[in-house]
Write a structure and sequence with these properties.
The complex is a heterodimer of chains A (about 240) and B (about 325). Helix content of chain A is about 80%, strand content about 0%. Chain A has one domain (about 1-240). Chain A contains twelve helices and no strands. By secondary structure, chain A is mainly alpha-helical. With about 325 residues, chain B is of the alpha/beta class. Chain B has two domains: about 1-220, Rossmann fold, CATH 3.40.50; about 225-295, Alpha-Beta Plaits. In chain B, strands 6-7-8-3-9-10 form a six-stranded mixed beta sheet, sandwiched between helices. A four-stranded antiparallel beta sheet of chain B has the order 2-1-4-5. In chain B, helix 6 links the parallel strand 7 and strand 8 (about 185-190). The chains are: A mainly alpha (about 240), B alpha/beta (about 325). Chains A and B meet through helix 1 and helix 5 of A and helix 2 and helix 3 of B.
Chain lengths: ~240, ~325
């Protein structure tokens, strides 16, 4: 556990040393603020619901930018050899990397707290949905970052990793948004597809609902992709 | 301390390591010598647990590298071939990171870092950023991180690659100083470097061990090919005739030179023929321009093995495919 945290901490520090981190931070803050002020005004509800639902779409491009370097950078630098010959398991390496990126993702959400303060200044917001919404965003972020960790274990090229991550995330968001409308989809399949859709899974969180099945969806998805990342890393040894 | 038994490694259709077996007792410095692509790095990577072997087994301090991998890795300090470091970190920060991965306490880390900084000459650059260091200093940081947890076994893959002669000397001195404290396995494709530091040399080519012994032992193996080179002011034909007739001469090779000739005489066994040849020249009234004993160096031995590997490779490849 200690060693996992050591890797996470190093990852977090090195993220703050890279220019990508600040670009992501800047775009995310600007994007969030824009989404917020689009619906900010009299007669609108004092909530962050619409903002957060927009943030999920913003994350499709911004989260892969955080995760694209995770393992790819180690492969390119050759430092992976040093990690893999240290007394660490591959699971510790992968989890450490993911945790470090999670740390950065949580700081990304700080602008949302600032917006909450803005709401407080002008009206009387309901804090329940804001807290559950933030929790939901963290779960979505964790899921996206796990996809990113998995993709970064595939290639030492950060651009490939980035595109692959965006693609997989799009499968869970964009594709599942449009696919249920297709004529060949039966109602049974439509239900399954709806369950797999990230945005509909998140919807309850932004409304202030906590549902165990939603937790299971995000946690199992995250675990699945982290597990596949560990297996990929292990398979590198055999190639 | 290190035990390797019938180690085999295939990369697809290529056999990188071909049935290697050797043992290294505690405290010995072993030089792993071979041309590029001989299987040195692969063998070292198997020992450090980075790659699993295709066949055979290896153990470090009694821990099998495959089944007790984590335990085995704890015993090893490893400097990989390209000295991978995190460019954005400071030297001290990086060493702390390595120490933490080795599960060292803060007090242990501070002590160990002071020690290795002193040993590897890092005192001046402790606060510098790794990305801005010269190749020589990076190499020192690499050796320092390998030494940090005071490992029983030190595995250094080409520790002097890319360094200038002064830096090579410094690294060599460092390795000699570490003698006795650690069991050291270092690889190189440059022979003089290994000859000076190692107690024992393993020459590896084409994935096989071609020679095993102390540098002195290997040199005697080579010395049997010693020849005498003599340059005279005389007719080539006469020289050939006179020298061939002498006792203990196996063969004479004569080349015409400007106003004379050069003869290369191979003696029987280890006979020293210099005086006999001198006497012959004197009686024939030939002027001697030059005469020297041409002892084959380890270098030639090494080149010969390398050449063998190059001949062997195509046939092996065709066999495999």
């Amino acid at each position: 556990m200690n060693q996992t945290l050591t890797i996470a901490r190093r990852e977090l520090t090195s993220l703050f040393f890279s220019p990508i981190a600040y670009v992501v931070l800047g775009i995310f803050s600007a994007g969030t603020a824009m989404l917020f002020f689009l619906q900010f005004g009299p007669n609108n509800p004092a909530s962050l619901k619409t903002t957060m639902e927009g943030v999920i779409w913003l994350m499709i491009f911004l989260v892969p930018a955080i995760s694209m370097r995770l393992l790819s950078e180690e492969f390119r630098n050759g430092t992976i050899e040093m990690l893999m010959t240290s007394p660490l398991t591959d699971t510790q390496i992968v989890c450490g990397k993911w945790l470090g990126a999670m740390g950065f993702f949580v700081t990304l959400l700080l602008p949302l707290l600032v917006l909450t303060v803005v709401l407080e200044c002008f009206s009387d917001p309901d804090y329940g949905p804001i807290v559950t919404g933030l929790l939901g965003l963290i779960l979505v972020g964790g899921f996206y970052l796990a996809i990113g960790t998995f993709a970064s274990a595939l290639s030492e090229n950060q651009i490939i990793t980035f595109l692959l991550t965006v693609f997989i995330i799009c499968l869970f968001t964009l594709v599942l948004f449009f696919l249920p409308a297709a004529s060949f989809i039966t109602p049974g399949i439509r239900k399954t597809l709806f369950y797999l859709h990230v945005n509909s899974q998140f919807a309850d969180f932004s409304k202030g609902l906590l549902d165990l099945t939603k937790f299971i969806y995000f946690i199992s998805g995250t675990a699945l992709f982290l597990f596949m990342a560990v297996k990929l890393l292990e398979s590198k040894r055999w190639r | 301390m290190i035990q390797v038994k019938n180690l085999v490694k295939w990369y697809g259709p290529n056999r990188a390591v071909d049935d290697i077996s050797f043992e290294v007792p505690q405290g010995q410095i072993v030089g792993f010598l071979g041309p590029n692509g001989a299987g040195k790095s692969t063998t070292l990577r198997i020992l450090t647990g980075y790659l699993p072997p295709t066949g055979g087994s290896a153990s470090i301090a009694g821990c099998d590298v495959l089944t007790q991998s984590i335990e085995a890795r704890r015993q090893i300090g490893y400097l990989p071939e390209s000295t991978p470091l995190y460019p954005e970190m400071r030297v001290e920060e990086f060493l702390h990171f390595r120490g933490k991965l080795m599960n060292m306490t803060r007090a242990d880390r501070n002590k160990a870092i002071d020690y290795v900084a002193d040993r590897c000459g890092l005192v001046q650059i402790r606060r510098r950023i790794i990305g801005q260091l010269s190749k020589g200093n990076r190499q020192r940081v690499g050796i320092a991180q390998a030494l940090l947890h005071d490992p029983k076994v030190l595995i250094l893959d080409e520790p002097t690659a890319g360094l200038d002669p002064v830096q090579i000397g410094a690294v060599r001195n460092l390795i000699t100083e570490l003698k006795g404290k650690h069991t050291i396995l270092l690889s190189s494709h440059i022979l003089p470097e290994i000859e000076k530091t190692a107690d024992r040399v393993l020459i590896i080519a084409g994935g096989k061990i071609k020679a095993d012994g102390s540098p002195a032992e290997l040199r005697t193996q080579v010395a049997q090919g010693a020849r005498i080179l003599i340059e005279l002011k005389a007719e080539p034909a006469a020289v050939r005739k006179a020298f061939t007739g002498l006792d203990h001469v196996v063969s004479v090779e004569v080349q015409a030179r400007e106003g004379g000739c050069r003869a290369i005489v191979s003696p029987q066994d280890d006979c020293d023929l210099r005086e006999t040849l001198g006497q012959t020249a004197l009686t024939n009234g030939w002027l001697i321009r030059e005469m020297r004993n041409e002892t084959a160096s380890l270098e030639q031995f090494f080149i010969q093995i390398t050449a063998d590997q190059e001949h062997a490779t195509p046939s092996e490849a065709s066999l495999a495919s």
